[in-house]
Amino acid sequence: METTHITIVKDLTYAEGPRWHEGRLWFVDFYSYRVLSVAEDGSDLRLEAEVPQQPSGLGWLPDGRLLVVSMRNGKVLRREADGTLWVHADVSSYITGHLNDMVAANLLRIDPDGAITVVADDLWFPNGAVITETGTLLVNETIGNRITAFDIADGGELVNRRVWASFGDLPEEKATGERMARLSVMPDGCALDAEGALWVADVLGKRLLRVREGGEILEEIDVGSNVFACALGGADGRTLFGCAAPDFHEEARKNAREGSIVAVRVKVPRAGVS
What we know:
Blueprint: E1 5-12, E2 15-21, E3 24-29, E4 34-38, E5 46-50, E6 55-60, E7 66-70, E8 75-79, E9 85-90, E10 107-110, E11 116-120, E12 126-131, E13 136-141, E14 146-152, E15 158-166, H1 176-180, E16 187-192, E17 198-202, E18 207-211, E19 217-221, E20 226-233, E21 239-245, H2 250-254, E22 259-265
Protein name: SMP-30/Gluconolactonase/LRE-like region domain-containing protein
Domain SMP-30/Gluconolactonase/LRE-like region: 104-241
GO molecular function: hydrolase activity
């Protein structure tokens, strides 16, 4: 398989939360506080929203309105047709740190009407999350050495919790730095393909991994930099986009424009629910 990557967007602070939606790649740039979208080849870069409290995860309501996480104040914002942003849900009382990829220290479900429910806890830094077409939620536990699966019940409850992929023992250390030293894979963002495999951005290994249920690594792509999130998209669903940067340290990323979006062609197209 050809794994040559190209850079389609550069001069970013720190890109995150990539999503393929309506023929474009959407993502956020943390420290310029922008939500952006771009064509598959990197052309036609558009400013979609500005989020002063730092944007993160993206999603869309059934009627097509954009949702974006406002990390530092624990809110999910909703973009109306005129471009204005309104608070869709305030989850600040449910979290102890920053709100991230539509999940936080607990896993929260936010319904289309803004109602908030805690649906899972005891997750080790829940991060990238995807929903399969059969209604299974996969969640990366970034400092847990694993990917966890839940079935989504008719009422939105999460049931049948299980380990979908394990990369080693669950570290016993509580401090993040000590846990990181014990990890084999540090799964951040992810993307599901049509064969049921998951592309994972491995922060620890500076690579994109294609993982099968059970934890077998099927493919590995080096994009020449640390990579923190990924998405499958493009006209045929076979372009794998990655959010690359030298590191994730806030002050360094704020003071440089070294982040980028890279793209590589893969064989198996995208799947799952955006």
